[in-house]
Amino acid sequence: MTLETVAILTGDIVGSRKIGAEGTAAVFAALGEALSGVEAWSGGPARLTRSRGDGWQAAVPDGARALRVALCVRAYLRARDLPQTRMGIGLGGVETLGSADLSDGDGPAFYAAAETLEGMGPFVAGRMLIYHYSVHQMPADDHLCMMFIEVGV
After folding, report:
1. β-bridge partners, 132
2. Is the pLDDT score of 27 beyond 90?
3. What burial letters (b/e) apply to 98-131, b meaning 16+ CB within 10 Å?
4. Is the model more confident about 151 or about 95?
C-alpha cells in the first residue's frame, strides 16, 4: 500500500557538537513538543525518530501541511533560544511508515527527504533562507523535495 500524501521531514541539529549531550537532549525534547503541538492539524502523530546521534525523522501524515509543520518546528526552537536544525522535506509515496518508529520506514518520500538534506552541504556565513524545490521522476511516484535553512541567526 502506498500512501500518496505523506511528507517525511529529516534533519540534524546545527552545532550539536558544541552543545553536547545535554543540549542535544533539550533540542530533541523541544522537537517532540513542537511536533506533538501540531498533531491536531497535521494529520496525526509525527512519530519523531532519532537517528545518527543528532539526526532525526518525522512524518507529516497530511503532506500538504509539511512546510507549515517545518516552520512551526523552527519557530518553536527559536522561541526557546535552542539551536536550529537543518531540515529536508520529502513529499511523495510511502510504502510503510515502519513498525515502532520511522527507522524502518520506506518509500520515495523517505529517499527524497534524505537526498534533500544531504544536498544542502555545509553552512556558510551570513543569514539566508533557502528554498529548493526539485521534482524527480521515480518508477512508482513523483515526489517533491524541499529544503530550507537559516544560517547565522
Report:
1. 147
2. yes
3. beeebeebebbbbbbbbbbbeebeeeeeeeeeee
4. 95
